[in-house]
Design brief:
- With 397 residues, the protein is of the alpha/beta class.
- It contains 15 helices and 19 strands.
- It has 2 domains: 92 residues, Jelly Rolls; 232 residues, TIM Barrel, CATH 3.20.20.450.
- The strands form 3 sheets. An 8-stranded mixed barrel has the order 10-11-13-14-15-16-17-18. The protein has a 5-stranded antiparallel β-sheet with strand order 1-2-9-4-7.
- The chain is elongated and about 90 Å long.
């Protein structure tokens, strides 16, 4: 057997691994053929002949079980190795339904092999399969329920003011989706937002969000002026969708909204898509849309990407804002964020400002924009339109 990087050459009749061995990699056949077989005493029971382009050895990497069969080359064969990290990362990032299907298939294969060998490990396998099934079925139920909610018009848009703290003036808002179940009432966003953003439903729900926001925008403009800016969250799934920018432009024409009045909020994860994200961000800014990085510092910050991307706003997460008065290290981090943003030509928005003391510290650091319960929580549009343009707030004692 010879090895060059991740490619292995084995000669005819070489046994690559035996049943019961620990599995540390899978293989894709570049050329040649192998036999997968079970050893029953001194007898070999053939399971499958595998040829060019096919993969084997993956089961042990996914479920951490010993090899369920042996493999021998039936002719000189070249194999490409797949490491545990390469396979498991892709498996774990897949939908739980896909994971369930793979586990069910592997469990059945192992049971068949055990039957041939007259062994029985079905109890542990069944328990694992049941646990995975429960998670997957729970997600399927939630996804179906969210689809019903979309079709039954159970989603609503709430809006939270973004305020110029020096002037105590509303200069924009952030659009936030809410779900009102007809029986349970409003469902906490924590219960469905993350799941929704990572599901296939995010595209149709995202289209509904943009349609609703663009339709509502002109009411805000009439009340708060033509410089009012609406921030709309965009998930990574939406952002890379092929029709995203086309649909966005159509909505500006349909509702007569200027792109400069719309701010697209993306997370740090979107930035990590590198060149792809850079291209889409540049196209958005070329059309006149503003860009904001949401929850900066809480995820996978990349200063390299940040310095290259056309970002207008950086949002400081509530987890930092809430500690600026009590934790000197957090205060130092916030100071650094604000300084960096200013040097890169970006504006800062502080999220979750709840006290006058937090506001005053932020103002002293030259962070002028904020949103939070100090001013107003997220409310339906009819309540937002009743808000005064200027808030009457005093400095902290």
């Amino acid at each position: 057997m010879s090895t060059t990087k991740k490619q292995i050459t084995i000669t005819k009749d070489t046994v690559l691994f035996r049943q019961g061995d620990a599995g540390d990699c899978a293989y894709v056949i570049e050329s040649g053929k192998v036999l997968i077989y079970i050893e029953k005493g001194s007898v070999e029971v053939p399971i499958a002949h595998i040829k060019k382009g096919e993969i084997f050895g993956e089961m042990s990497l996914i479920d951490n079980s010993p090899r369920s069969a042996s493999v021998r080359a039936t002719e000189d064969t070249v194999l490409n190795k797949i490491t545990r990290d390469q396979l498991v990362d892709r498996y774990q990032s897949s939908d739980q339904l896909v994971q369930l299907l793979l586990r069910v298939m592997m469990s059945r294969l192992r049971r068949n092999n055990n039957t041939l060998m007259n062994t029985n490990n079905s109890q542990d396998e069944s328990a694992l399969e049941e646990a995975t099934s429960n998670d997957a079925f729970g997600n399927i139920r939630l996804e179906n329920r969210l689809l019903e909610a979309l079709n039954n018009q159970e989603f609503e848009m709430f809006y939270q003011p973004i305020v110029d703290m020096e002037q105590n003036k509303i200069i924009g808002c952030e659009a936030l989706i809410r779900w009102k179940d007809p029986i349970a009432g409003y469902i906490s966003p924590d219960k469905f937002i993350d799941f929704l953003e990572n599901s296939s439903l995010m595209i149709p729900v995202g289209q509904w969000i943009f349609e609703t926001c663009f339709k509502d925008f002109n009411k805000f403009k009439d009340q708060f002026g033509s410089d009012f800016v609406m921030s709309i969250n965009v998930s990574g799934r939406q952002f890379v969708h092929q029709d995203f920018l086309i649909d966005l432009e159509k909505l500006t024409w349909k509702h007569k909204v200027l792109p400069k009045n719309i701010k697209l909020e993306v997370t740090e994860r979107v930035m990590m898509d590198g060149f792809n994200a850079m291209d889409i961000l540049n196209r958005c800014t070329e059309k006149g849309f503003q860009i904001s990085i949401d929850d900066f510092g809480t995820g996978f910050s990349s200063l390299q990407y940040l310095s290259q991307m056309p970002v207008n706003y950086l949002k400081i997460d509530r987890s930092f804002v809430s500690k600026i008065n009590s934790d000197p290290k957090v205060l130092a981090v916030v100071k650094s964020m604000i300084y960096m943003a200013k040097e890169l030509g970006m504006s800062i928005i502080a999220e979750g400002v709840e006290t006058a003391t937090e506001r005053d510290v932020l103002l002293s650091l030259d962070a002028n924009l904020a949103q939070g319960w100090l001013y107003c929580k997220a409310v339906p549009i009819q309540d937002f339109l009743k808000l005064p343009i200027h808030f009457s707030l005093k400095k902290a004692a």
